[in-house]
């Protein structure tokens, strides 16, 4: 019964949120999944494949992290919004999120290259970069990629 009550409370809170607030929460949760994919890929590339810290971050963020978050946002967060083919939405998503992703990667690179703690534990730079890019990526996704044609 406690799980049912918790679910009921969460549903009640969710229902009182605006569509934009609901989308931001979903977008953030999807970002959490993207973070796990990004950080996991980064860890494998740097620890097991001998990849460079910054180049590996570029690949983990822009290839693996961004593709994962696009697919989840397309089919969950902004389902029914946006127009065009899946590929055209992906291209728009990449374009809209490039500033956030560059801020994300730039934050990571600056921290890893300039602060010993982040150089020793580079995944901490992934965390910092992720937070920096969140606001930019949400705005670009909501108002450019998945903008509803409805008034």
Summarize the structure.
This protein has 151 residues and is an all-alpha fold.
Q: What would you note in describing this structure?
A:
The protein has 151 residues and is mainly α. It has one domain (18-145). Helices cover 83% and strands 0% of the residues. Helix 2 (19-47) runs antiparallel to helix 3 (53-77), helix 2 (19-47) packs antiparallel against helix 6 and helix 3 runs antiparallel to helix 4. The relative contact order is 0.14.
Domain count, please report it.
1
Task: Tell me which oligomeric state these chains represent.
Answer: single chain
Strand content: under 5%
What do the pLDDT scores average to? 89
Largest sheet: none
Share of helix among residues?
over 70%
Question: What are the secondary-structure elements, in order, as H or E?
Answer: HHHHHH
Instruction: From the alpha carbons, calculate the radius of gyration and give it in angstroms.
Output: 17 Å
Number of strands: 0
Unreliable spans are none
Distance between the termini: 42 Å
Shape: globular
* Alpha-beta content class: mainly alpha
DSSP helix count? 6
What is the strand and helix layout of this fold?
Layout: H1 2-16, H2 19-47, H3 53-77, H4 86-114, H5 116-120, H6 123-145
Helix pairs in contact: 2-3, 2-6, 3-4, 4-6
What key phrases describe this protein's structure?
151 residues, 83% helix
């Amino acid at each position: 019964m406690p799980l049912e009550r918790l679910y009921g409370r969460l549903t009640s809170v969710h229902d009182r949120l605006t569509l934009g607030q609901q989308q931001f929460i979903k977008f953030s949760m999807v970002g959490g999944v993207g973070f796990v994919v990004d950080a996991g890929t980064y860890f494998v590339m740097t620890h097991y494949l001998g990849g460079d810290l910054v180049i590996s971050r570029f690949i983990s963020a822009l290839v693996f992290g961004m593709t994962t978050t696009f697919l989840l946002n397309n089919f969950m967060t902004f389902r029914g919004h946006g127009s065009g083919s899946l590929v055209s939405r992906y291209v728009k998503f990449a374009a809209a999120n490039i500033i956030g992703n560059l801020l994300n990667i730039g934050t990571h690179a600056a921290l890893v290259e300039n602060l010993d703690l982040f150089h020793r534990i580079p995944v901490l730079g992934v965390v910092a970069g992720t937070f920096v890019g969140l606001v930019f990526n949400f705005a670009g996704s909501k108002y450019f990629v998945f903008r509803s044609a409805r008034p």
